[in-house]
Write a structure and sequence with these properties.
The protein is α/β, with parallel strands linked by helices. It has 3 domains: 126 residues, Nuclear Transport Factor 2, Chain: A, CATH 3.10.450; 256 residues, Alpha/Beta hydrolase fold, catalytic domain (Rossmann fold), CATH 3.40.50; 70 residues, no CATH class. The longest helix has 21 residues.
Amino acid sequence: MKPHRTLIIGLSLAWALIVDAPAPVAQPVAVAIATARAVPDAQVALAMLTALAADRWVAATHGFTAAMRQGLPPEKLHQLWQQLKQQNGAYQGHGAAVAASAPAPYHNVLVPLRFSHATLGLLFSYDARGDLAGLHIVPVALSRTALQPAGAVAARLARQAACLRAQPVAVDSTGAVLRGTLTLPRDGAGPFAAVLLLPGSGPVDENGNAPGALGNSMYQQLAYDLTCKDYAVLRYNKLGLAPSTGNGNDVTLATYVQNTRDLVTWLARQPAIDPHEIVLAGHSEGGLIALAAAPGLKIAGVISLEGPGKPLARIIAGQAIAEARLRGASPAQIARERAQIAATLAAIRHSHGVSLSLSGALARNPFARLFAPAAALLRSEIDVDPAQLARAIHVPMLITQGGKDVQVLPGNGQRLARAAPQATLAQFPDMTHDLTRCTGRAIACVMPQPGDVLDAHLVARVVRWLDALRATLRHAA
């Protein structure tokens, strides 16, 4: 089994990129540094962190390249540091510095940052002169055993466990085994209406968690919510994401469509499931997969949870520019990012193989570095029009759109709803991309905290739609 390194497309680009800097950064392969003194770059990186923690913004920018000083002056660094604390809690210190792989002549140092609600990786990229040329946030490889529900989420799941029973699932698909969990209502023998949860992009597990990124178990929350309302729910780990097997890098949209079809076939054969009452519910990229898979399946309905309504090429560009504006980027910086995104997408379209080869200008393009590991998947997805797929969906469809979603921007839901023959659009002004409620500025709620529960209005609306669909199906039968 190869490790799942596919990019989390649905996550905020700000998660992986703090500033547009020339230093190339690939998926870091960390090597422990014996002592900070032995590596000058590490010593400089730790000195900068000390300055950040002490609110010494001018001192923190010491050693920046000219481009870094222009793109990240002290006041902008202050703003970004405050945003990190707003999103992840109080800063509590850092872990040991590690060396991360980088193309010559650059040198990368990765330092784990511990906040009260999350641990992030801050990647320092130094040029041949030892000046800081890039500063990036990357996911830190954490043990999945550490991704446990916390706070209000843990208490809620513990209460709901009394109304359901869970069983492990293993389904053969595309030469691998998909493993997950089927939750069934504790009361009643069935057969039950069922929901198949299709996850978003990246190494997001069956609970909706990703190491160093997502940790509030959003899919487990939704599964428990629906199961306690008398619906069976199947959620699973994607290819290459343990305990599932397979290669999580060498995948395309067609691969995920086949996985979906195999999971639906398995569900329909279970005695506890009504094969005429199976609904696909796709979150983020999972919404696109649901649209692509639905026409070949005998299903009762489709739910798109913050799924794209425009081609991913437009989603990626729109997301990056929207976040650049939210973080106060200048018109010149925004224009530069537009050009870099366009170059990245063009390179992906003309690429071959699993990943994108970085050389020349692409090696200095932060968006190319960000999306390089997922080139094969993106090549199969970026120009697919979800609205065109939706026109072929002739079963009832529920589309959700959050007003605080900075990944799939408002307007996507409306475009999708106009195309689908039997669509219902449900809008939630304060909901984020990850289905939680945000009462402040959207940029402050990009990443859910471990104790963040799902938006109650969303859950209630999904249940009402499912109840109405089930009543219609049983009346017709």
